[in-house]
Amino acid sequence: MGLLDSFEQGLERAVNRAFAKTFRSGIQPVEIASALRRELDTKAAVVTRDRILVPNELTVTLSPADQERMRALGSALVTELDTMLRAHASSQGYSFAGPLRIDLRADDDITTGTVSVDSSTAEGRVEWRAVVDVAGRRHPLVKARTVIGRGSDADITVDDAGTSRAHVEVLWDGERAMMRDLGSTNGSKLDGAPTKQAGLSDGQTITIGRTDIVFHVVPLAAPSGPEARTTATRMLPQDGGWS
Q1: What pTM value is reported for the model?
Q2: In this structure, are residues 151 and 166 in contact, taking their beta carbons and an 8 Å threshold?
Q3: Residues 167 and 146 sit within 8 Å (Cβ to Cβ)
Q4: Side by side, which strands form the sheet with 168-172?
Q5: Any idea what DSSP says for residue 229?
Q6: How far apart are CA 2 and CA 71, in angstroms?
Q7: Mind telling me which InterPro entries this protein's record contains (predicted)?
């Protein structure tokens, strides 16, 4: 089942099926969904080889008659549009620069049965935060040096008898990352290969004992005002190197 089919079924579940059939003329909800999905695809910007940024604020402009019909669906329409867009972004590997917002507006210059979509990214720097996922829990790397191991004095403690007290460290300078084995008894692996020290890229997995540690760099939006708009990205190195 495609995303647009799922969207239609979700909307039908949210509103009375017979009521939904009144939308036989003018714009159809699925056409709005398709236009929004196309807007993300058109505006998608590759900021690193592992990260594609898309706008997080989308404005749908309709004719007054179409907008009135969409308003009759209440919050269900925007809820289903939000769900569909998030699923599309996930399937394409897109990252939103901030909280997703969809707004429907009317314009007398828009012909009935047509839709216009404008998009933007909330103003502010898109900061990149390094995190690691361990046993279903996400840990932000708030220090330049994060020690992971079995010991209670490690920055991130793992419950794994096959790991050393201070097993591996992850270094992060705000742009680049690397992992370094700390002389552990059983050694460390990076994407399955024994590794003592290496640069890290988004999505790579460090294995210590039976524990997998997945490294990610995630975007954080810092809007400075609700009405301001700009697009800002930060370029990360392609090779995960460290100087």
Answers
A1: 0.49
A2: yes
A3: no
A4: 156-157, 145-149, 168-172, 177-181, 197-200
A5: B
A6: 25
A7: Cell_Proc_Reg/RNA_Proc, FHA_dom, FhaA_N, FhaA_N_sf, SMAD_FHA_dom_sf
